[in-house]
UniProtKB/TrEMBL annotation, chains A, B:
Protein function: Acts as a magnesium transporter.
Positions of the CBS domain: 204-260
UniProt keyword annotation of Cell membrane present: yes
Topological category with respect to the lipid bilayer: Multi-pass membrane protein
Tagged with keyword Magnesium: yes
Gene name of the encoded protein: mgtE
Protein name, per record: Magnesium transporter MgtE
Top-level lineage group: Bacteria
Length: 452, 452
């Protein structure tokens, strides 16, 4: 199979069916998976979405809504539905999904929705709304299968089957005491395979990985990936079981974090939505561009300082842009490798030292290689040995600076607690621009100006 | 809990224990999870790794080896072990993990290892070695729980428990016919809850998501994420069940693909390992830098063309670097958002058109905003209204070009089948550099040169 992508044929089919009678629409919709309908929603107006949700069976409708991504605004759709239909759909949703959607709405809309729900659902969702979105608490589902650790196999299995009524997956079961304190985890397999009279206490694993509700979601993702877990329990400060996070929730987190990394390293605010409108994009990018403008003036002030050199050797201003540009490129390379490396795991002092040393060497070699090319071009094109030497030295020097700053700046920022992806690229460009102008201009002034 | 990071205390403890007697070492190691030992291995030489693997219980040792990442070279460690110990460890590994490690070795080493294994394991691993590493076949584990679709509940459950002996997780069960053709999937929950006499045929879901063995791993990740699966079956062209891929394997794929995206967009070959040595880094980055040097000369040739203008208005060469640099920054922003967006999902023609239009608007507004700043600085600092206007126009023009190319180039590359992350950044920098030099120089020549 191939993943489902938006396409004209499917869109046309749905649109035609939307114009026809309900029975026809129902038949067409039955051929699509909920996540496919959610994708098609991207190209359908609110009224069409509403009509489709109203015609789908409640279970399917709630699945479509949980599959819509944040940018499609599933909350707006929920609010537009008849209160009864809406409550039915929310009751079908997992608590974590319902909370994600409701948290995007205005306070009075949240209140309205919660008032219509039955008390248990409402209080569960209210509790989840209290956690920050990017923490373990904000990710977790409070629906878990838990059994008292002092039961025997038979009673536990009955209890598990009873509780699993509303759960899709029940691979991991949590064993708690009478105060809901998490005591251990066990797999459905170990229960099924156990002899009839076995006590749950003897089946549980007591050395398990868990997280507190306020842990950052990036740390949760690291733990799940590091210990190869399919789910992780979330507890409060007294080890009381609050919920669990499953690996498929983490996939979304990882996608989100990678997007943020790519945006930040490119000078875009991490909050900019990929399909956001132009106003949001201007708001996210203009501040960064203005900071860049400041550093560009800093670099340009170096050029102003060498006015006389440029007036006499105009050609040097063409070459200096090449050397500054190449420095920027080489620094971006060193930066990307270093930032990505420290975002995947921390480095020891020795590893950090080796990274800087490596980037110095890479800068030296790549600088000398490109310096030689520039040297020969200057020899052939300008027939000027001295100019060639100046350019060779400037290129090598700037690529060494590029490698050193590209590796050092993110490592230093990380140690002082600043996100290296955000600030690194602006700092290193300033370095390579300044050095890229200063080196050729200063060297040219020293060695090429006749009356110096 | 926090994720485990390399730290001095744990390293010192292990190193001290390595110098002591075996009982002491065993005791210290027992306090670490296999994935933690794998992380500590990064800082331990081969002999130390060997000693630890030999002292650990086989099951734990095989887990440590499966947790080592590719860059730590688990194959080298396997080869260094006594053949008997080695075979024991490999037999404990999942087939897919064993295959990943063995595939990294030389052919004669692979042969040596496979000859020592029992026939079933060897032939399973041999089969997996035949699939390309980055396809569904290369990711899958051929160990699955499968039952004949024509069994009843009791026989099926017995069979499942028998097969689950060697599996950690058995949430998904595959129903096949007598030729191993995949007929449906079912959950352990549906079997447990079914009445005693139910036929498996009546429990299976027949409309399921599957992949062919040669599907690219990125597509597999998209499917698992799109349909929220915990596992996906892999079949051959005749729907014969070959294995399955679980969501935790996909987490590694996603991390890998994000790393590749970040590296490619920064002009680093996707094959460069983050912790690779300087030789590999030079090999990966130098070709890209040389291509960049070529485009830099292209842009610089524009500057050469305006020699006279620069000699007379030396200050313009400082301003042109600012305008070209700002264009590069704005284009990188537009590029990052567009590349990430199309790497997460395809765009319809209308969405593509809207993206370009949005980036044009963003370029216009951000260009005008920065153009105003540059205008006022030229008025204050150089007291030159004409210069201010030239710079305003050049800045606005170049940021519009930056937005248009930053959005259009990746969209066009994607349509013609070229990976937009690889080639985009070099193409747009060429555009913004050329326009960044051409616009201010040409405008200055037109409006600022006295004797034009």
């Amino acid at each position: 199979m191939e993943s489902f992508e938006i396409n004209k044929e499917d869109l046309e089919r749905i649109k035609t069916a939307l114009g026809g009678d309900d029975a026809e629409l129902e038949k067409v919709l039955a051929e699509y998976h909920a996540s496919e309908i959610a994708i098609l929603f991207e190209q359908l107006p609110l009224e069409a979405r509403e009509k489709i949700i109203n015609i789908l069976p409640t279970e399917e409708a709630s699945e479509v809504i949980s599959e819509m991504n944040e940018e499609q605004d599933p909350g707006e759709l929920l609010i537009s539905l008849h209160p009864e239909k809406r409550s039915e759909i929310i009751e079908e949703l997992d608590y974590d999904d319902a909370t994600d959607i409701i948290s995007q709405l205005e306070e009075h809309e949240q209140k309205e929705i919660l008032e219509d729900l039955d008390e248990e659902d409402a209080s569960n969702i209210r509790a989840l709304l209290g956690y920050a979105e990017d923490t373990a608490g904000g990710l977790m589902n409070s629906q878990v299968i838990k059994v008292n650790i002092y039961l025997d196999k038979k009673d536990a299995l009955d209890e598990i089957i009873r509780q699993s009524e509303e759960m899709e997956e029940f691979n991991t079961i949590y064993a708690v005491d009478e105060f809901d304190v998490l005591k251990g985890i066990l797999s459905i397999k170990s229960i099924i395979k156990a002899h009839a009279n076995t006590w749950i206490e003897n089946l549980v694993i007591k050395d398990f990985v868990y997280v507190k509700a306020d842990l950052d979601q990036e740390e949760v993702a690291k733990l799940i990936s590091q210990y190869n877990l399919t789910a992780i329990p979330v507890v409060d400060d007294h080890m009381k079981l609050l919920g669990r996070i499953t690996v498929d929730d983490i996939i979304d987190v990882m996608e989100e974090e990678s997007t943020e990394d790519i945006l930040k390293i490119s000078g875009v605010s991490e909050d900019e939505e990929l399909s956001g409108n132009w106003k949001a994009a201007v708001k996210s990018r203009l501040p960064w561009l203005i900071i860049n403008l400041g550093t560009a003036y800093l670099a340009a002030s170096i050029i102003r300082h060498f006015d006389t050199t440029i007036e006499r050797i105009a050609i040097i201003s063409a070459y200096m842009t090449i050397i500054a540009g190449m420095g920027g490129n080489a620094a971006t390379q060193a930066l990307a490798v270093t930032v990505r490396r420290i975002s995947l795991s921390d480095l020891t002092d020795r590893q950090a030292y080796n990274t800087v040393l490596k980037e110095f060497l890479v800068g030296l070699i790549n600088g000398a290689a490109n310096g030689l090319i520039v040297f020969f071009i200057a020899m052939i094109y300008d027939a000027n040995l001295k100019l060639g030497l100046v350019l060779f030295l400037a290129m090598t020097g700037n690529l060494i600076i590029a490698g050193l700053t590209g590796a050092t700046i993110p490592l230093v920022l990380k140690r002082v607690g600043i996100d290296p992806a955000v600030a690194s690229s602006i700092i290193i460009t300033t370095f390579t621009d300044c050095a890229g102008f200063l080196l050729p201009l200063w060297l040219a002034t020293q060695f090429l100006l006749p009356h110096h």
